[in-house]
Design a protein that fits this description.
GO terms for molecular function: oxidoreductase activity. The protein has 436 residues and is of the alpha/beta class. The protein contains eleven helices and 16 strands. The strands form two sheets. Strands 1, 2, 6, 7, 8, 9, 15 and 16 form an eight-stranded mixed β-sheet that branches. An eight-stranded mixed β-sheet has the order 4-5-3-11-12-13-10-14, with helices on both faces.
Length: 436
């Protein structure tokens, strides 16, 4: 018997409609008000704000702009914070915990308004998100969380019992779940392309395929060595996240790049999509290493993603694991072919919270922990106002101390396969308990 065919293309499905376009070479500026490292969502959002305020600003990216996570992610506007409310309260106090949760609502509203007011054509669909529960205890806890979000923050959130589950997702794997209507989906590569368009039109200069090699103090400013030469800048903003390299060693010791992989099915019949994804919602699961999935913007395919424990190359095993997960959710898709499989890096830190912080006068906007569609533009914008000294507009719950460093780590995440396997074991135990 032949092994299942994995995919036709190892490039992101998103690049079909919004292919990466190398930018023309630009003259290297000798002096800048602000130099930005990274031209993904965060770097472009910050650069847009700075350029519109009249600053001379340029963003430098080691790859083509957007080639990293900005055009590889699932396009879900979740703004998820990994630690739950109880954990945030224990670590930072109730006031900080509530401020972090409230800011998620503000960040999503900002993103949606930004898309509308800037006229960004990126297939944004405010369809809501369903989160699946494994077992009655999980369902009860999730229902309480939904009730708290509705009462304290005014978010349209509610529980969905198992008996009504198939109105939201065509699987029996979960035992109910919750819905949040403030979450939607967009086309991440189109969003980046449109963000780049408006940033360039606002006179942000973007240098693609021009890595930053080092950043050094130079009197009251900085001397930044790039692959194209040296630039002097009054201020520096680092927005590298999951693709942080040796140019910023302080940050590299605090962010761990973790692969996230996504598969896309071939086009499915309309009646199949109507059964499996009846409300066209974004879907997540209440697991440590669960799946996230969604319909494509045109409603013809299912895209499913999850953590990838591989570290080098493009092995088949992680793709087959996602395919197995897809079939477990939707057994009728067993014979369906995959059209695309790809991966990209997300950046985790020990607190699992996005951050703005300052170290040796360099400002950092980073650490989005797999939820950069919402957090990267929000944090980038606030970092820009911080650089300009706009105290009120810069205020955010995410501007505080740097993430803690990771002992014995300098950029090679050798420990991640073991960590991910540990999380999967935790999930298996939790599911076994839920099924008793």
């Amino acid at each position: 018997m032949h092994a299942p065919r994995v995919e036709d293309k190892a490039t992101p499905y998103w690049w079909e409609a919004a292919p990466l376009t190398p930018l023309p070479q630009q003259p290297l500026p000798r002096n800048l008000d602000v130099l930005i490292v990274g031209a993904g969502y965060a770097g472009l959002s910050a650069g847009l704000v700075l350029a519109r305020e009249g600053r001379s600003v340029a963003a430098f990216d080691a790859m083509d702009p957007g080639e990293g996570a900005s055009t590889r992610n699932g396009g879900i506007t979740s703004g998820t914070i990994r630690p739950d409310y109880a954990t945030l309260t224990r670590r930072f106090g109730e006031e900080k915990a509530l401020a972090i949760e409230a800011e998620g609502k503000a960040a999503r509203e900002f993103l949606y308004d930004f898309i509308k007011t800037e006229g960004l054509v990126c297939d944004f669909q405010p369809v809501g998100q369903f989160k699946g529960a494994f077992g009655y205890e999980q369902y009860e806890a999730m229902a309480r969380t939904a009730d708290r979000l509705a009462k304290k923050l005014g978010i349209e959130a509610y529980a969905v019992p198992y008996a009504e589950q198939r109105k939201y997702v065509g699987t029996d794997v979960y035992r109910g779940g919750t819905v949040r209507m403030d979450i939607g989906g967009l086309h991440p590569a189109k969003f980046h392309s449109e963000l780049l368009r408006v940033a360039l039109a606002s006179e942000l200069t973007v240098h693609g395929r021009t890595p930053v090699i080092s950043i050094d103090r130079d009197g009251s400013g900085f001397r930044v060595l790039t692959a194209a030469g040296t630039v002097r800048a009054r201020q520096v903003l680092v927005c590298t996240n999951g693709y942080t390299d040796a140019a910023v060693p302080f940050l590299r010791r605090r962010l761990v790049p973790v692969r996230s992989r996504i598969i896309a099915t071939e086009e499915l019949a309309p009646d199949v999509m109507a059964r499996l994804m009846p409300k066209r919602m974004m879907i997540t699961e209440n697991r440590e290493v669960g799946f996230y999935y969604r319909p494509s913007p045109d409603g013809r395919r299912i895209l499913l993603g999850g953590r990838d424990s591989s570290r080098v190359g493009d092995p088949a095993a992680p793709k087959l694991l996602l395919r197995k997960g897809l079939i477990n959710l939707f057994p009728e898709l067993e014979a369906v072919r995959l059209s695309h499989s790809w991966f990209g890096n997300v950046a985790m830190n020990r607190d699992m919270i996005p951050r703005i912080f300052e170290k040796d006068s360099v400002v950092y906007a980073t650490g989005f922990c797999g939820s950069g569609v919402v957090w990267a533009p929000w944090v980038g914008m606030h970092a820009a106002h911080k650089l300009m000294g706009h105290e009120e507009r810069a205020r955010t719950a995410f501007d505080f101390r740097p993430p803690a460093f990771i002992p014995f780590y300098r950029g090679n995440p050798w420990f991640m396969p073991a960590f991910i396997q540990g999380y999967r074991m935790h999930d298996r135990i939790a599911m076994w308990r839920a099924s008793r």
